[in-house]
């Protein structure tokens, strides 16, 4: 009888997926030993034999060479079913797996990359999503090391077969380097940071055209790494020598600002389990009844102080991938996105994390695209709905936005002003808010901030009178096909 693949408390029921795989293994255990009786299989038989082999590979380390030979021998679909099951297994159970099962899982992943199995890109994404930001535990650092090692070792194959996978790894490890760089004296991180830096710089230098697919959030991630010499050089070229990247028609960092970041990249920094719980919070929990769910979520995912950096990833995920509940009348009483973000903002204790969270909240305002109203909605609703009970949030956010306009990119300040004004115009014209009167006339808003906002809005009136109501980006909002 095969052992369990997961850590499970005595009162926990066995996961249905693990139970199904175990059942298949027990049923076909005799078929998994040589000599193999290869024969024609029905689709159901084929699927169950794949399930049995997967369970055996994860639970029987001493038999992996035999089992992988059998898998290669029976495959008729390019490993499509097998990789889909591995991916599902990772999404549902990785957090609970025993160390032995995790080691075997990475071994299986390498095998699938070696044969370029159908769906290996999805398998890679699933593993990357299991790396948790701000987590310096041995298991998480081990997974970081394994994944960056796979990306470097399989470089040529990835470039030839699915180069976009490199951008997934780039997004993840740029983000993780910001965390790992904070522990400069931790000997556990020395080799890992070197490998992460090597991988990221190689992607940026050799395949910058692909990197543009990440969109404007590429710039947001890079700015956290300017203190690292290799990335300082990248910044210098982005600002002053864009020709160094050898991408046709790439002339300025402003072009990256005009590329929207696809939602997949935001998902890369949120585990599937975290995503399920966030979506539950945003679709099932009524506003006013959220306290116990928030406490549970924080205890589950944000228990360590180092995990505060994860709040930035969550905010970007909510703003850019979660549909606004206000668009659905039948869930109008559930906890809205702005309320979740307000709670996350109030959970911040570190000033640097709070600043990055605010930047993540307002980032789409700076380079607004007319189709991005969903992305800018949470910030305006949080500012307005925080009056009067939480007016300090309103003042803090409004002050941050106004300072951001002046200082984020001084050379391209006009572009940013147009982006912010276009966002405000879209929020009003699409009925998200009626006006900004509550901000410009409320006594709880700082007089100085009201004055600064008034000047900004007067500029909007001037530009509207000239029939300039939307931002004209320097390039299309879709990066060129490479």
Verbal overview:
There is one protein chain. The chain has 482 residues and is an all-alpha fold. The chain contains 25 helices and no strands. The chain has helices at 16-28, 43-59, 64-74, 80-93, 99-114, 120-129, 138-153, 155-161, 164-180, 190-206, 208-211, 217-222, 229-240, 253-257, 263-267, 272-283, 291-301, 310-321, 337-347, 351-366, 373-385, 391-407, 413-429, 437-440, 447-465. Helix 9 runs antiparallel to helix 10 and helix 18 (310-321) runs parallel beside helix 20. The radius of gyration is 25 Å and the shape is globular. The termini are far apart. It comes from Cuscuta europaea. This is Integrator complex subunit 3 N-terminal domain-containing protein. It holds the Pfam family Ints3_N. Residues 44-453 form the Integrator complex subunit 3 N-terminal domain. InterPro entries: INTS3, INTS3_N.
């Amino acid at each position: 009888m095969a052992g369990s693949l997961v850590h499970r408390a005595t009162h926990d029921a066995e996961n249905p997926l693990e139970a199904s795989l175990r059942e298949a293994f027990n049923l076909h255990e005799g078929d998994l030993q040589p000599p193999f009786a290869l024969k024609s299989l029905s689709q159901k038989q084929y699927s169950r034999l794949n399930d049995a082999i997967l369970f055996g590979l994860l639970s029987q380390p001493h038999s992996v060479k035999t089992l992988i030979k059998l898998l290669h021998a029976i495959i008729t679909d390019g490993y499509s079913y097998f990789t889909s099951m591995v991916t599902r297994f990772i999404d549902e159970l990785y957090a609970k797996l025993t160390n032995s099962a995790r080691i075997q899982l990475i071994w299986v992943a390498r095998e699938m990359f070696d044969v370029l199995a159908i769906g290996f890109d999805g398998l890679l994404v699933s593993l990357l999503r299991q790396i948790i930001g701000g987590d310096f535990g041995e298991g998480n650092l081990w997974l970081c090391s394994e994944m960056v090692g796979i990306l470097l070792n399989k470089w040529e194959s990835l470039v030839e077969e699915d180069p976009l996978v490199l951008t997934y790894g780039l997004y993840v490890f740029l983000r993780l380097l910001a965390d790992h760089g904070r522990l400069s004296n931790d000997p556990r991180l020395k080799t890992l940071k070197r490998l992460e830096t090597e991988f990221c710089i190689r992607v940026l230098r050799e395949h910058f055209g692909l990197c543009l697919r990440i969109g404007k959030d590429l710039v947001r991630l890079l700015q956290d790494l300017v203190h690292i010499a290799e990335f300082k050089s990248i910044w210098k070229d982005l600002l002053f020598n864009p020709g160094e990247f050898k991408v046709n028609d790439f002339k300025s960092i402003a072009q990256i600002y005009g590329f929207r970041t696809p939602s997949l990249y935001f998902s890369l920094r949120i585990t599937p389990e975290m995503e399920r719980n966030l979506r539950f919070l945003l679709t099932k929990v009524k506003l006013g009844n959220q306290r116990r769910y928030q406490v549970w979520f924080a205890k589950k995912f944000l228990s360590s102080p180092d995990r505060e950096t994860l709040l930035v990833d969550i905010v970007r995920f909510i703003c850019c991938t979660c549909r606004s509940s206000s668009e659905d009348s039948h869930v109008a009483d559930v906890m809205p996105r702005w309320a979740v973000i307000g709670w996350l903002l109030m959970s911040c204790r570190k000033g640097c994390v709070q600043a990055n969270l605010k930047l993540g909240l307002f980032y789409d305002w700076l380079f607004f695209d007319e189709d991005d109203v969903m992305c800018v909605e949470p910030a305006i609703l949080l500012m307005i709905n925080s009056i009067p009970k939480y007016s300090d949030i309103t003042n803090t956010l409004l002050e941050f936005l106004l300072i951001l306009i002046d200082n984020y990119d001084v050379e391209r300040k006009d572009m940013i002003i147009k982006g912010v004004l276009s966002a405000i115009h879209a929020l009003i014209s699409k009925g998200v808010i009626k006006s900004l009167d509550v901000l410009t006339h409320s006594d709880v808003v700082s007089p100085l901030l009201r004055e600064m906002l008034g000047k900004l809005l007067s500029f909007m009136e001037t530009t509207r009178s000239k029939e300039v109501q939307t931002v004209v980006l320097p390039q299309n909002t879709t990066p060129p096909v490479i």
